[in-house]
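Journal club side-thread
Mid-discussion, someone asked how the predicted structure for our own chain would compare to the paper's figures. Pasting it here so we can look after the session.
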Amino acid sequence: MHMTAIRNKRQIIHRRALMADIEQQVEETGKPVEKLRREILSMLKEHLAKGREEIRKRFDAGADGAHVVRENCYLIDQIVRTLFDLATTHVYPVANPTSADRLCLVAIGGYGRGELAPHSDVDLLFLMPYKQTPRGEQVAEYILYLLWDLGLKVGHAVRSVDECISRARGDMTIRTSLLESRQLCGEMVLYEDLRRRFATDIMVGTAGEFIEAKLNERDERHRRMGDSRYVLEPNVKEGKGGLRDLHTLFWIAKYSYRVHNLSDLVEQKVFTAGEYRRFAKAQNFLWTVRCHLHYLAGRPEDRLTFDVQTEIGRLMGYADRPGVRGVERFMKHYYLVAKDVGDLTRILCAALESANQRQPKIRMPSILMRREIDGFRIEGGRLTLANRHELAEQPIKMLKLFRVAQSREMDVHPQILRWITQNLKYIDDGVREDPSANQVFLDILTSPKDPEATLRHMNEAGVFGRFIPDFGRVVAQTQHDMYHVYTVDEHTIRAIGILSGIEKGNFPDELPLATRIVHEVLSRRVLYMAVLLHDIAKGRGGDHSVLGEEVARKLCPRVGLTPEETETVAWLVRWHLLMSAVAFKRDIEDPKTVHDFADQVQSMERLRLLTVLTVADIRAVGPNVWNGWKGTLLRELYYRAAEQLSGGHVEGLNRAGRIQAVQDKLRERLADWTGAAFQAHVERMPGSYWLAHDAEVLERHARLVAKADRQGPAPLVIDVAPDRFRSVAAITVYAPDHHGLFAGVAGAMALAGGNIVDARIVTTTDGMALDTFWVQDSDRSAYDDEVRVARMRDLVGRTLSGELRPAKALAARRDGPKRTDVFQVTPRVLIDNRASNTQTVIEVTARDRPGLLFAITSVLSDLALTISSAHVATYGERAVDTFYVKDVFGLKITHQGKLTRVREELLAALDAAGPVIADDGTIRSTATAAGDAAE
C-alpha cells in the first residue's frame, strides 16, 4: 500500500554495526562463524530487543500505527538479511556457484506488504531456481532455527518458481500471498522471474475469478465474525470493517489495476483524492488500535475486548466529555471507521463493474428490462442516474431513489451510491423543510415493504443522518455495557424491522399479544415515528427520554404529523421505558401498581402503542435479551391495565370475576376431589394467588399440597416444572413458613447454577409457605436438565434442613477475574413507601454476580423483614432486584431510623468485597460486622 517513511533507521537497528560485532567476535575467539551460534544468537537478541524498545518508545511518544508496522518490518528485514549473509557467505559458502545454487529470500503475506504488527507472524519464501538442493536446505534451516530461537513466529515455504506458479493456479491463499511478495535478499533475477511468470501465467484474464473469490472469502469471514460492524467486542483484523477488509481492497486493486500502492488508484480515477485520504486514515486508525492491543496483551491479540477498550481509548486521547464517556467516543470513532471501510469497498466494486460492463447472465423480468422507471435509469436490473449532476440539481432524488428501490423491490447501483456520498452536502435545511421530501421519508419509514433494509441502506449511504440530523448524532453511538449489543442507530433500525415483522405476523408464537393488538392501533405513523425516535437523544447527557420528547415535538410536525399525532409520539418517547420498568421491577399483583400505571397511560390507544413499542424495543436490543418470561410479564400488565382503563370490562370480566373463573376452571380439573376438600383448599390461599398462575399450575400446586399434607406435619416438597415457551423452570417449594426461607432457597439455587428471574411468595392461612421461583440457567434458557434439577432439589432440601450453609459454599466458589469486570455498577438502594398501599418496596441496583440475590435476601432476613414478592431484572452486568417487604408486625417500614439501617446494611452487602461470612456459615453485612468489632 502506501509506504510510510522511517526516520532515524539506525536508532532501530544498525546492520553494519551488528555485522561488525559478529566479525569482532570471530576475531577475538578465533572461531569460525559456524562455531559461534550461541554468541550470534545472543547478539541478535540484544539488537532485536533494542530495536523493539525504540519502536515502542516512539509509539508511546505519539507515533501512529502506520509507523510502528513499517518500523517493525524494517527491524525484522535487517535481522533476516544479516542471517542470510551469514548463512550464504560464512557458514555455507560456495566457491564456484552453479545455477542450482542460486537462492532468493522473499517476504510474503502481510510481511511482504511491508506491515508487521508488534507480535505478528513473519512469512518467508525460500525461492529456488529448480528443486531443493542440499545447500539450499542447509541455508534455510540455519536461518529458520535462529529466527525461531529469537522467539519469532515464522511461517515458511521452500519452492521453485515453477512450484510457486503451479500452486498459485489452484490455491487462492497462495496466489494472494505471492501478490504481496517482496524481495529481501539473494538473487534478484529469480524474484523477477517469479514476478514476470505470476503476471503472465496467473493474473492475465483471471481478475474476475480472483475478485469473486476474495469477496466470497470476505463474506464468509463476516458471517463467521457475526456479520455486523457493530459487535460489542470487534475483531480489529478479521471483523467487518476491519484491517482484513482493507487488505481485500488492496488485493483486488492490485490484481485488477496492476498498481503497487492504492494511491495509484487516484491517478487512474478509481478513487478521488478525498476517498484515498479516507482509506489512509481508516488504515492508520485500525493499525494504531491493533498495535495498542498487541502491546497491552504482550502477544498477538486482535479482539477489542471490554477490558482494554477504556485503556486504549485513553491512550489514543479520547477523554470524557459531558454526557459521554471517553470509551464511548473511542468506540463510536471505531464504528465510523468500519463504516468508511464498507463505503470504500463499495466504491471500488462500482469502479470495477463499470470497467467490465457485461450483459446480465439471466433474463430479467420485463419491468427490469425497461430503461427508465420513476425518473431513474436501470442498468443490469439496478437503479441509477444518467449523471451525478442530477443529485446536486434535485437533491430530493437522493430520498426518492430509496423509495423507488423499496416499492419496486430493486437494488441500487453502487455507482449512484458513490455519487450520493459526494453530493450529501446538497441535503440542506431547504430539503429538510420540503414537505415533499418529508413525505418521501415517511413513506419509506411506514412502508409495508421491508423498511429495515431500506433505512439501513440509507444509513450506509449517509442520507438518513443527513436528512434527520438528530439521527446522524446517534450513528455509531455506543453504550459501554454488556446489555446494549448494537449501536443506537443499528438498534433503532432493527426495532423498526421488528415492528414491521409484527405487523406482517412474523412472530405469532413469540409475540402473540403484540401481533394481535398492532392491528387495533389507530395511527401506524405514530407507532413508526415513536420507534424511530425512542432513543434519538442518547449520548447527549441527561435523561434521553426527556430530551427525546423535545426532539419529537420538533421533528414530527416537520415530517407531516398532526398536532394530536405529535403529542402521542412525544408521550411515547418520554415514557418508552415505563412499561418494562413496571412489568419487570414491580409486583403486578399489587393493585396500586396497576392503578398507578394505568393513571400514567390514560387510554387504551396509548396502552396498545406503548405495548408494541416496548416489545419491539426489547426484542431489538440483542440476541437472547427477549424471552418468553418477559413476554408473560408484559402481557399480564397489559391485561390488568386494560381492565382498569376499560372500567373492568376487558374480555368481559373484572378482577373478582377473573378469580372466580380461574377457580371454576380448577374445579373442573380437580373433578376427583370432594367439594369440601376443594373449598378448604380455596380458603387456604390469598386472593392474589389465583391470578398469579394459570389453571395448569394451580392444579399442579393443589395436588402437590394435598400429597405433602398427607405425609404428616412439617412437610418439605420441592417441585420442578420446566416451561420452555416462557424460557423458565418453575420451582415450587412447599414447607412450613419460617424466617429466612427465601434467602435459603436463593442461596441453594445460586450454588446449583440457577438464575432466579422472578419469585412469588404465598403464605397460606395455616402458616405454610408455597413459594414459586422462576429460574433460568446461565444462558437465559429454562433450567430443565434432569441432572441439574436433581442437584437443585438436593441443595434446596439440605439448605432448608440446616445441613448446608450456602454462604460459605458460595464464598469458596468465588470466580477469578473476568474481562467483563471492567464494567462497574454503582450500588444503589431505593426505598419507596408510595408504590404500594400495604408494603414497602425496596429496589436494589448492583453489579450482577452469582449469589447476589442470596446476599440481599440474607440481609433482609437479618433485619427481620418478611419478603412478600421479589422481582429480578438483569440488564447485562446490571441487576435490578425489587422486593415487597413488611416488618414483623405485617406493616410497612415507616420509622426513619429503620429505613436508614436497611439502606446502609444493603449497601454494605453490595460492596465489591462481598459480604462477611460468620463462623456459623451465615451471611452478614460488612456494616454489621464492623459494628460487632467496635463493640
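Post-session note: The chain is about 55% helix and 10% strand.
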